[in-house]
Amino acid sequence: MTIPKALVERLAAAKSVTVLTGAGVSAESGVPTFRDAQTGLWAKYSPEDLATPRAFLRNPRLVWEWYEWRRKLVADARPNPAHLALAEMESLFPAFDLVTQNVDGLHQRAGSRNVTELHGNIMRTKCYDDNMLVSTWDHTGEVPPKCPRCGGLLRPDVVWFEEPLPEAALKTATNAARQCQLFLSVGTSTLVYPAAGLPEEALRSGATVVEINPHRTPFTDSASFVLAGSAGGVLPKLVEALKASRNL
Ligand code: OAD
């Protein structure tokens, strides 16, 4: 795929860039996306049946074990060329904001420093009752384990359906969408709000918005540019084209 000349020019001229990533960016690291088929043990459940407060209260053991399965998958995964390209991009612009819906921490492991996690991080654990982060607890064999402070059930520090997003993260993400000259929407189905509203917000604020996704999404027809390919294939090409345009 060649990067359109007009896009390279805008990329080269941009002083502020904001990127929104979704599960598609981690797909090439072997981390299943949400709306592609769930693999293995969990094929019979949908994330909506597992990633909600009601599902957790109904069957805390099942939900905790689903996240343990995902934590192991993520711990064994490695950043792929998409994560590495975004980490390199951060140093190529005066202002660069990376906003992710992913909870796998792969952007940070790839070297990205300024990462806003809209949906939390699966490697962090908190107490369901007092909402405080917990880093160590007694491994008594109870599943889920109990909060060492108040005895409440422990849960992953991720945003579930029907739960509000972390306020500060959403404010940072919204400002970053409003203030950037160029916005990349990468590997997201653009279905889950408020994150899915960020590309539109950027467009409304006058930014050039690029969608990178092998498939169409509800935002595809609104995008300024559509690069129909994988994140791991397209993002490195974008970085190369940018560096070539600046003779880097
Ligand atoms: P989805 O699983 O909804 O969408 C993944 C997107 O990535 C799809 O549009 C795919 O076409 C695209 N895709 C697949 N492989 C790709 C690749 N190699 N390169 C680029 N794109 C690729 O995941 P999200 O959009 O991230 O929320 O889902 C948004 C939110 O819904 C998640 O954060 C999660 C989920 O429920 C919560 O858990 C609150």
Please, could you describe this protein's structure?
The chain is an alpha/beta fold and 248 residues long. The chain contains 10 helices and 9 strands. It has helices at residues 5-13, 24-27, 47-50, 53-58, 60-76, 81-89, 106-110, 167-179, 198-204, 231-245, and strands spanning 16-21, 95-100, 115-117, 120-127, 133-134, 154-158, 182-186, 208-212, 225-227. The protein is elongated and about 60 Å long. The chain starts with a helix and ends with a helix. The relative contact order is 0.20. 2'-O-acetyl adenosine-5-diphosphoribose (OAD) binds next to helix 2 and helix 10.
Observed structural traits:
alpha/beta, 10 helices, binds 2'-O-acetyl adenosine-5-diphosphoribose, 6-stranded parallel β-sheet, about 35% helix, about 250 residues, 3-stranded antiparallel β-sheet
Bound molecules: 2'-O-acetyl adenosine-5-diphosphoribose
Using the alpha-carbon principal axes, give the shape.
elongated
Unreliable residue stretches: none
- State the major sheet: 6 strands, parallel
Number of strands: 9
Neighbour order of strands in the largest sheet: 3-2-1-7-8-9
Instruction: Name the average pLDDT.
Output: 94
Quaternary? single chain
Alpha-beta classification: alpha/beta
| Helix share, percent | 25-40%
Whole-Å distance between the termini? 21 Å
